[in-house]
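Subject: two folds for Thursday's group meeting

Dear M.,

Sorry for the delay on this. The cluster queue was jammed most of the week, so I only got both jobs back this morning. I'm pasting them in the order they finished. Each block is the input sequence followed by the predicted structure tokens. Could you check whether the formatting survives your parser before we put anything on slides? The first protein is the one we discussed after the seminar.
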Amino acid sequence: MALSYSLGLKKGYGGLTVSWNLLSLLKAMSDENDNYALARIDLPGASTHGWQVRLQRRGVKYAKFFGDRVFGSSLHALHAARTWRNHLLQKFDESEQARICKRSTRNRSGVVGVSRVRVVTNGVSYEFWQATWSPEPGRRRCVKYSIRRYGDREAFRLAVLARKDGVGS
């Protein structure tokens, strides 16, 4: 990484001359959380210096380069890259929430988190209505109601009630 930042006032440290902008840049780079999905690109031979944002969600890759020259300085490029990344992450969060709350086209029960399941064990078929939900991040709960025991409508009704109870709505 070539350290040829000559903007601003300079201060000497044991024979080294470091610009205030470089010190600001190093301070800005120090927080790891702020640099999530960011990479510093310095290719002096190609005159390429800047920040690249790289993210992937659901198999789709997102990347954008923020050049120092275009944004006037490395700090401005870093700020623009973080802003773009944060906007993208916010869009991901909104789409994830939308996906969780919307009924999938594959849903045949008409109720999110309630599905009819058929299992064949040793040649014997078992059918039941299943309710699933997530009480907290990283945990999943599931309750099954046998169609043979409760009948189709009652098993479905019980699964819907269990789902509502579990989700808390």
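Second protein, same layout:
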Amino acid sequence: MSITKRTLTALGFRGLFAIIFGLLAIFWPGLTLEVLIYLFAAFAIIGGIATVIAALNTQYPLLLLEGIVSFFVGLFIALWPGVYVLFLIYVVAIWALFSGISQIVTAFAIRKSVKDEFWMLLSGIVSILFAMLLVALPMVGVIAYMWVIGFYALFFGILQLVLYFNLKNIVA
């Protein structure tokens, strides 16, 4: 497996974005959560409308159903964002678990061609521990979770940038 400049640049941007998001979540946890909830609601509503429109020109009834469900999920979240918070915590936990497993598998896959795969492996382990924490204690407190999410994103971003700078010397 070879690493291209495009892949390296994407890793660098991913790390930088994670650091920015982490700092926002740490210093403005309530606002960050509220923005995330309403952005997702808007995404689901607009995506639902677009999917319904697309489905009207096809012969796929499941596509129409997907659009309708997406629209109403977005509407539900916009009207009752508090109910969505617990759901959001579980979605983040599932994402962190999948991300962690993916990073660990990738770290083992690239270990023969890259000597600094340890940082990716460590990112994967941290991601899985984070997922376990979210599942074990989902109602600890939303603001506390935003801080945890923020510190996780900050740490993850730093690890990604360390990986980026270490690989930058290899990929020329």
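Two things I noticed about the second structure. The chain has six helices and no strands. The CA atoms of residues 123 and 156 lie 6 Å apart.

Cheers,
T.
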